[in-house]
Amino acid sequence: MINPDSLRQLFADHFGGEGIAFAAPGRINLIGEHTDYNGGFVFPGAVGQGITAIVRPNGSRDVNLHAADLGRSCSFCIDDAQGPQAVDFRYVFGVVREMMAAGVLVEGFDALYAGDVPLGAGMSSSAALESCFAFALNDLFGGKLDRMQMARIGQATEHRYVGVKCGIMDQFASMHGRRGSLMRLDCRSGEFQYYPWQPDGYSLVLVNTCVKHQLVGSPYNERRASCEHVAALAGVETLRDCTWQQLDAIRPKLTEQDYRRARFVLGETDRVMAVCNALENADYESVGHQMYLTHEGLSHDYDVSCPELDFLVDEARRLGVSGARMMGGGFGGCTINLVRNDRRDTFLARVRDTYRRLFSIDCQPIAVEIGDGARRL
Ligand code: GLA
């Protein structure tokens, strides 16, 4: 997380005076991919990287933003329904408008912010931004929203202002994260449990392909549409409610592509449960095995992987990593690896070499620390 003191100084230089510091993190997800918008289970945790913002009400109807890491500014009036065009400012604009729609008496403010979530890595830098501002505005303007309501504000922002029909996982994790714990969320009921994450002898490490995925205007929404189509044919609300028997029964009516996508989602629900059982027995090799199975499904059935991700997962397997898979929406971003501590350094060194030789770019290892959710600093 970016140190708020350096941002406080930048705020003073840019706007003059002082503001209040807030932060919200990005996330990882151990297992349960593309299940959130199907009413299924996810297993995320907040990370140490995130967005830090200095915010101060300015007594007007205008919002003045400065993204210090991008060196870009933007102003808009909170009563303007159109808002800025630049997508990175639409996240904040959408949060403002959704908070107002939820009854929070938002007024104008000045904000300077910066983040350290690698962009395009699939670690939810956009959810971190939404959660940081939802939390800050709720706090500064006397809102009474709880964390789940604020997570839904971020999700609605993606749907209505950015055009990504995402599920709730990213914003949920950014809001509810707790240091040292992963969370299992039932995306249908909204119930969740914290799972202390102390994998003795193992580490989680991300490897960023440094290939960017573009969820905006991407096949992400199309995957979701497939799932909704199959659920409707099966006569259930979401694929979470669809049994293997029901899926088999409607198979003749499905394209092979839709069938495979649904098959992935049903299988992923089973894998989340298998991971929960394995965690109760501290059986990390079984957790890792399920991660590899998830990757196979994401790559072959759900078709959201890419050659760079597949390569990193294959290399991980070859180098004795206990579990590896692509993480997040797909089409680039990073893999999440569960690796025994005694194999970690060799894995990272070898994979860096072979990746560079094949793709002529450097992949980037990212250490994972499970951190806290959105907060006032
Ligand atoms: C993106 C979305 C999430 C989720 C994942 C895939 O991160 O924002 O809602 O669907 O992809 O699991």
Give a structural overview:
The chain is an alpha+beta fold. The protein contains 11 helices and 13 strands. The chain folds into 2 domains: 4-195 and 372-376, 2-Layer Sandwich (Ribosomal Protein S5, domain 2), CATH 3.30.230; 200-367, Alpha-Beta Plaits, CATH 3.30.70.890. The chain has helices at 4-15, 87-101, 125-140, 147-162, 169-176, 219-234, 244-250, 256-280, 284-301, 307-318, 341-359; strands spanning 20-29, 41-42, 44-57, 62-67, 72-77, 109-115, 181-186, 192-196, 202-208, 323-326, 334-340, 364-367, 375-376. The strands form 3 sheets. The protein has a 6-stranded mixed β-sheet with strand order 5-4-6-3-1-13, sandwiched between helices. Strand 4 (62-67) and strand 5 form a beta hairpin. Helix 3 (125-140) packs across helix 5 (169-176) and helix 8 packs antiparallel against helix 9. The longest helix is centred in the last third of the chain and has 25 residues, at 256-280. The mean pLDDT is 96.
